[in-house]
Design goal:
This protein has about 375 residues and is of the alpha+beta class. The protein is built from 5 helices and 14 strands. Strands 1-10-13-12-11-14 form a 6-stranded antiparallel beta barrel. Helix 2 packs antiparallel against helix 3 and helix 2 runs antiparallel to helix 4. It starts with a helix and ends with a strand.
Length: about 375
């Protein structure tokens, strides 16, 4: 018992020394951690302020200017030559619409054009005939005028003879029968003059009618030929429309791409403007990267970007170029825009879509599809 009591004072100082040593080590460790943290913060600040030359976001998605394949004519679908996911080339026939109605309309338009050309030729021939008739009527008028002059001379002659005979009859030199005969001659000559004048008036009237008809025909063809007369031009326009409608019964791919959302079947009747399917140009894709507004201070059109996709991972990099910025944030164009004029408004950092064009050669090697997720990094130091 005495030995144990003698050893207690000796172990107490050793314990105090151990505690002090441990506290010292903890302080040094905490100080070291704090120093490392401070250095890391300083280095990050230096990197962020002076060395950071890029902005990054993983809120990016592949997009494309898809085409809606529509029918330009009314009719029944005769053939559907493609299906969803099928790749097509520009000019490939996608759908054929029954073209029998279009062929009938084309035949009618061709007949109308021939009819219009024949009408022009007929009008031209009528003008020539009327022109000849006008010249012939001149001769008729001259002949009628000569007949009037002859009848007038004959009337003057018999009137003079009647006057002479009237004087002789007063002296009894001639009989009443001779005087009556002279009077009859005057009446006959007057009737002949009236008839000649009527013939002249008829000839003049016929000439005026021919001249009026000739003027009307000349107005129809004046300043034009067989290919430029209005009726022919209208018929030619209808023929072109019929040819175009016939051509449109074959619906072709406007560019290379992949068929999507096909919703047409053989036998279905379609109207002009009916959407038959979508065509996605897989070699002309782009990426809409939604950057925070605080990241866009130094982003400009023309800057280069490096992108990776979840489809291929980090092993495949795509190179692109900034094309431009959207006209507004995503929330601004939402179907139900945010109402910020309220008392419980909370500021939310907005994102602005940035359009990045991709390299077609890289897309050919590693195809992408619309809607795939991407990670985009824009180098803001280069342009």
């Amino acid at each position: 018992m005495t030995d144990a009591q003698n050893t207690l004072p000796e172990t107490q100082p050793d314990a105090d020394i151990s505690d002090t040593t441990a506290k010292t080590k903890r302080k040094k460790a905490l100080s070291l951690v704090a120093l490392i943290f401070i250095i890391a913060v300083i280095l990050y600040a230096i990197w962020a302020l002076f060395l950071n030359r890029s902005v990054t976001t993983d809120n990016a998605y592949v997009g494309a200017e898809t085409a809606s394949i529509t029918s330009m004519v009314n009719g029944q679908v005769g053939q559907v030559l493609v299906s969803d996911t099928q790749q097509v080339k520009q000019g490939d026939v996608l759908v054929r619409v029954d073209n029998r109605d279009a062929e009938i309309a084309l035949a009618q338009a061709q007949a109308e054009l021939m009819k219009a050309k024949r009408q022009y030729k007929q009008t031209q021939a009528n003008s020539s005939a009327l022109n000849s008739q006008v010249f012939v009527s001149d001769d008729g008028i001259h002949s009628a005028e000569a007949q009037v002059a002859k009848a007038q001379a004959e009337l003057n002659k018999v009137q003079d003879d009647l006057a002479r005979r009237t004087q002789l009859s007063a002296s009894g030199a001639i009989s009443k029968e001779e005087l009556s005969t002279a009077q009859s001659a005057v009446n006959k000559a007057q009737a002949g003059l009236d008839l000649a004048k009527a013939g002249l008036a008829q000839a003049q009237s016929s000439q005026k009618a021919a001249q009026s008809t000739l003027a009307a025909n000349e107005a129809l063809i004046r300043g034009s030929n067989e290919t430029s007369t209005p009726d022919v031009l209208i018929a030619q326009a209808k023929l072109k429309q019929a040819l175009l409608d016939l051509e449109r019964t074959e619906i072709k791919a406007p560019f290379d791409g992949v068929i999507a959302r096909r919703n047409i079947q053989v036998g279905q009747r379609v109207a002009a403007g009916t959407v038959l399917m979508m065509l996605v140009p897989i070699n002309k894709l782009y990426v809409d990267a939604n950057f925070k507004e605080s990241q866009l201070a130094k982003v400009q059109a023309g800057q280069k970007a490096i992108l990776t996709s979840d489809l291929y991972g980090d092993d495949v990099e795509f190179h692109g170029t900034v094309v431009g910025f959207s006209g507004g944030t995503g929330s601004a164009f939402a179907l139900i825009p945010a109402q910020n004029a309220t008392g419980n408004w909370i500021k939310v950092v907005q994102r602005l879509p940035v359009r990045i064009a991709l390299d077609p050669k890289e897309l050919a090697e590693h195809p992408l599809r619309v809607g795939l997720s991407m990670e985009a990094k824009i180098n803001i130091a280069l342009k």
